[in-house]
Structures are given as C-alpha cells and as structure tokens.
Amino acid sequence: MIIREQEPLSAHTTFRIGGPAAYYLIPENRDEVRDALVFAEEKKLPFYVLGRGSNMLFDDEGYEGVIIEIGRGMEQVSMEGMPDGRVRVTAQAGIAMSSLAVQLAEAELTGFAFAGGIPGTLGGGITMNAGAYGGEIRDCILDATVITDSGEILVLAREQLELGYRTSVIQKKNYIVLEGNFVFTRGKKEEIMAEIKELNQRRRDKQPLEFPSAGSTFKRPEGHFAGKLIQDAGLRGYRVGDAQVSEKHSGFVINRGNATAAEVRQLIQDVQERVQEKFQVRLEPEVRIVTMGNKG
Predict the structure, then answer these.
(1) For residue 295, what pLDDT band results from cuts at 50, 70 and 90?
(2) I want to staple 116 with a disulfide (CB 3.0 to 4.6 A). Which of 18, 87, 101, 215 is the partner?
(3) Which helix (H) or strand (E) holds 159?
(4) Is 36 exposed, middle or buried (0-12, 13-18, 19+ CB in 10 A)?
(5) Distance of CA 60 to the CA centre of its chain
(6) Single pTM value for the model
(7) In this prediction, what percent of the chain has a pLDDT beyond 90?
(8) Any residues with CB less than 8 A from the CB of 7 and at least 6 apart, and which?
C-alpha cells in the first residue's frame, strides 16, 4: 500500500483546491483497505475516502487525518450471462464511471450510458446514487459489497442501500464501497456509443468543463432548478476572489485559477442567502465540504 505524508489535496480534486493531508493512502485491494482503516485507528485519526475527488471541497489548511484513495488497483470488471439473457456485471469501486460506461457499451450492454460523462468513480457513484439525464445507479444495481469502519465486510442488497437523491446508507454510516453488482440487458453497440457521445456533447455545451469545479454545486430543490434560481437572483458570474458562479451554467461554482476553499465557502453562503431572500428557497450544497478533521 502506498503511504504518503503531507500530500497536497489540490492535486487530487477536480476543484484543484485543498491543503495537505496528514496521510494519503492508496490501497489496491480489499485487504489493503482494511489495513488502511487499521492505520487510521492506530494513528487515532479520522479518515476520509476519496475516489477521483470530483464532488468535494477540502480546507485550505488541509486534512488532519487519513485520506484513503479508492482507485488504481481496484478497477476490475467481470461479466456473466444470466439464464434470462441479461448480463450480471461485477465492477470494483475504483473504476471511473465513464470508463465502465464505455466497457459496457463495448460489450453491447445498455442501461449505463447516463454515466458516460460523470467524472467520479463507481464507489462514489454508488455512495451518492449518482445520476444524470434520467438515469441513476439504483436503476441497475443489484447489491454492493462494503467494508465498515471496524473492518467488517457486508453485502447490501439494493433495498438495504437506501438509495435516494444523492444519498445512501453508505454515506450515512461511513461505509466504504469495495464493489458493486449490476444487471444489464443487451443492446446495439453503435446505438449505446452514440447515446454516450450525445450526452457528453450536451454536457460540453451546457457545463463549464473548461474550468476546475466540483460539478453541480447545489442539490436540486423540490419543484425548482438550482441554476435557474441562482441566475434569476442575479448571481450569474458572481465572484468571491477566484471563485465564481459560472456564466455558462449558474448551478456550477468554478475555480478561475487560484480560488481558495474559504472563497468557495463564502460564495456558497452568499448564494444561499440571496436565493433564500428572493425566493424563500434554501439551497443545500451537493458538493461535500470537508474540514480539517471531520470524518466520513
């Protein structure tokens, strides 16, 4: 297992923001994940699980604890035909969702194209019930294998995962995803690849992918769209230092170059207050804000 000290988190997040982690661990299998948990326990430090860092904001001061990256070495995928003609797919938590979408398309399996442009890993996607363009993880997952903070391995069926809008029991109980089992039907490779290409083009057209960000900054409030509320509140392009509400899509906060976590947090607070004042709607951040030593 790779162990680094004082590793800059700005190098491991899509926001490109964050100070050093006291310890940065990269396990490559489930035994090493358990070893990482033991390491954190022995150091008497909190731990935080990271995939590709696509939905989080770390403090400028860093993280006084143990970061566990689930990625390289935990990216295997296997497929098995089922009696009813469908295919059961087992994928490890470290694989990028976009990579899995392409692998499934190459295997002529349909039902995962929605994830072709989601920047995170499968582990993060299961934890947050990631979704886009009408599809989400709970539509196709059978079960997930997780490890608890005490090192116990559990297999949770779809119903036990409590998958909701950007939430799950995994998130609530601080489990770590090791792998997921899915079921897909067969389709035509050309059509599936075309769908992935179309959705990715829609993302490029509508989202500020040319700037570092953590994706959609706010959850969708019931009955509204966060980006429209922010734009209608007159906050399109609003800046705090190098943190800015995107002019291309107001639902995104971008890093124009040297934004700090403090600037992003202040901007988020300003947006929340302005939207609350104008529309009586409280926006809830979708980006996970990780302070110096919080766990989970």
Answers:
(1) low
(2) 101
(3) helix 158-161
(4) buried
(5) 20
(6) 0.90
(7) 90
(8) 20, 21, 23, 24, 67
pLDDT for 20 equals: 97
Give the number of other Cβ atoms within 10 Å of residue 289's Cβ. 15
8 Å CB contact between 3 and 126: no
Burial of 292 (0-12, 13-18, 19+ CB in 10 A): middle
Report d(CA 176, CA 153) in Å as an integer.
Answer: 10
Q: Is 45 left (phi over 0), alpha (psi -120 to 50) or beta?
A: beta
- Report residue 228 as tokens: 């429209």
Catalytic residue among 216, 246, 263, 265: 216
Query: Catalytic pick from 7, 69, 179, 286?
Result: 286
Is residue 286 flagged as an active site residue?
A: yes
Q: Pick the catalytic residue: 16, 34, 166, 265?
A: 166
Measured in degrees and rounded to the nearest 5, phi and psi for residue 212 equal: -65, 135
C-alpha to C-alpha distance for 46 and 23, rounded to whole angstroms? 11
**Predicted pLDDT at 294:** 63
Annotated active-site residue 216? The verdict is yes
Residue 21 has φ and ψ, to the nearest 5°, of: -90, 140
Ramachandran area for residue 141 (φ above 0: left; ψ -120 to 50: alpha; else beta): beta
292 has a pLDDT exceeding 80? no
Q: Which residues contact 204 (CB under 8 A, 6 or more apart)?
A: none
pLDDT of 161-173, one tens digit each?
A: 999 988 899 999 9
pLDDT at 43 over 70: yes
166 noted as active-site residue: yes
- What residues does 182 pair with on adjacent strands? 89, 141
